[in-house]
Design brief:
The chain is an alpha/beta fold. It is 53% helix and 10% strand. The protein has 21 helices and nine strands. The chain has helices spanning 2-17, 19-26, 46-55, 57-67, 127-133, 153-164, 183-197, 208-220, 224-231, 249-264, 285-291, 304-318, 324-333, 338-355, 361-367, 369-378, 381-391, 406-422, 427-433, 439-455, 457-471; strands at residues 30-35, 38-43, 73-78, 96-99, 173-177, 203-207, 236-240, 268-273, 295-299. The chain is elongated. Mean pLDDT is 81; it is low at 80-125.
């Protein structure tokens, strides 16, 4: 009997509100139970429960009262359950009740709504619901575990400021940099810090790809209203790898409107990408302009010192002792990104623990053969020679010539030094690439460059700039 009454109420609701609103908000409702004039209806999320309670609970009670004058209360709870006419089990304390006096003809009292929903047309979602909507946060990615150095100190400071701010600080905060340099780590750290500092603030983190997927699904199911309200009800929206919506016009349109709606409400937005807003291809001009209107913070390629610090931090977290020579070797050889650097250390430690051998430089080279070969493919001696020759405005052929004038010899020594630092080639191999020189010549060049770096600040900056250019 209750099921047939509910079916008739749904038909009347659909006629009144229209197909779109019905699909978005009312179709997901399930009949939880009817007992002694009390009806319990269930919705899958707290967000939908609050919205339906605010906009439709009163009308549902009125229509059901017309079907059955014995119905006095309609409770809307959270929980996707099967329809049943039996009394409902206990549910979470937060319920929304549409109540009337026992006399059917008596005036109807107002719906009681949670405080989070009052005074707003779109109630704020909770973090428990948001976790289902977005991506899982990695517990390892916190500010405490982020190693700070010159390449990332500005982005780190900006992320900390946003995470600590009660009001909107930089909106949006746009983080950009190459793969594996720490953008995602900082975004997770911001989310963790905000939730710990103020658990009432709702934080939604997800990739741009997942945002696009959810939008397409909403279009396919004709449920865009629910999508819009879910994304525009959060306090902090964090979109990772926004470059993935390049060329997706409909997704960009929706993201643009979501962006504007959140900014207008004073909500915080954090975005990451592999390039700055002005360099993103396939992104509409108005959206690029919007993303650049806040604070844009870049993360540069890692320096040797930063990589060494990351390795020490990682080893400390793992509770293992790694010889300093091995740490320095890894910091010199794995220069592409932090993920590969940490992955290399993980492999070395795991090999040592599994086979019961001490960690040595030789075992490290053996375990990481494939990774080191891949690194070699990225930077060749020929590339180093070409870049150094261009920088010092000398002919490439001078790298292999017999000329010993300082104008030529110094760049050649720098190129030898960089070849030793950035490739895994042996000293004799490097010497052969420089006009068949002896390995002792390469050793002398490396030693000379290291001495000049210590005594000449401008020289050290030149060498560091060349290294960054080669690794970038």
């Amino acid at each position: 009997m209750a099921k047939s009454e509910w079916d008739r109420v749904k038909v009347r609701l659909r006629d009144e509100v229209g197909d779109a609103a019905y699909r978005s908000w009312l179709r997901p409702i399930t009949l939880h139970g009817v007992s002694d004039g009390d009806v319990k209806l269930a919705l899958p999320t707290r967000f939908m429960r609050d919205w339906v309670a605010t906009h439709y609970a009163e009308r549902i009670r009125t229509l059901w009262g017309a079907e059955n004058p014995g119905i006095r209360n309609v409770e809307i709870v959270v929980g996707a359950v099967r329809a049943t006419a039996a009394p409902a089990p206990a549910v979470e304390p937060a319920v929304v009740v549409a109540a009337v006096p026992k006399a059917a003809a008596a005036p109807v009292r107002a719906v009681r709504v949670p405080a989070a929903a009052s005074g707003s047309s779109a109630p704020a979602a909770s973090n428990s619901d948001i976790d289902e909507l977005g991506a899982q946060l990695d517990p390892r990615f916190t500010f405490k575990n982020f190693v700070v150095g010159k390449p990332n100190e500005f982005a780190y400071a900006a992320a900390n400021r946003v995470a600590d701010a009660d009001a909107v600080s930089f909106n949006p905060l746009f983080l950009y940099g190459g793969v594996g340099l720490g953008k995602t780590h900082l975004m997770h750290a911001i989310a963790h810090h905000i939730r710990e500092r103020n658990p009432q603030r709702t934080v939604l983190y997800l990739s741009a790809e997942k945002f696009m997927y959810r939008f397409i699904r909403a279009l396919r199911t004709q449920d865009t209203m629910s999508f819009k309200e879910q994304f525009r009800s959060v306090d902090v929206l964090m979109i990772d790898d926004v470059q993935f919506i390049a060329g997706k016009d409909a997704t960009q349109e929706e993201f643009f409107h979501t962006f504007n709606a959140l900014v207008d409400q004073g909500r915080q937005i954090v975005i990451s990408a592999d390039k700055s807003p002005s360099d993103l291809e396939g992104i509409e001009e108005r959206l690029r302009s919007r993303m650049a209107c806040g604070l844009v913070a870049d993360i540069h390629a890692t320096t040797y010192e930063l990589r060494l610090g990351i390795l020490h931090s990682k080893a400390e977290q793992m509770g293992v002792i790694v010889p300093q020579k091995v740490m320095e070797f890894l910091a010199h050889k794995i220069t592409s990104n932090v993920r590969e650097l940490e992955g290399g250390l993980n492999r070395v430690v795991a090999h040592s623990q599994l086979v019961g051998r001490a960690i040595t430089l030789e075992s490290t080279q053996e375990v990481l053969q494939d990774l080191l070969r891949a690194s070699d493919r990225r930077i060749t001696i020929e590339e180093i020679q070409k870049k150094v020759a261009e920088h010092f405005t000398i002919k490439l052929a001078e790298m292999s010539s017999a000329r010993r004038s300082r104008q030529v010899a110094r760049p050649r020594q720098i190129a030898m030094y960089l070849a030793k630092q950035l490739t895994s080639r042996s000293l004799p191999e490097i010497g052969r690439k420089f006009g068949g020189r002896d390995h002792t010549t390469v050793m002398h060049a490396v030693k000379k460059v290291e001495e000049l770096k210590e005594s000449d600040h401008n020289f050290a900056e030149d060498v560091e700039l060349l290294r960054r250019m080669l690794q970038g």
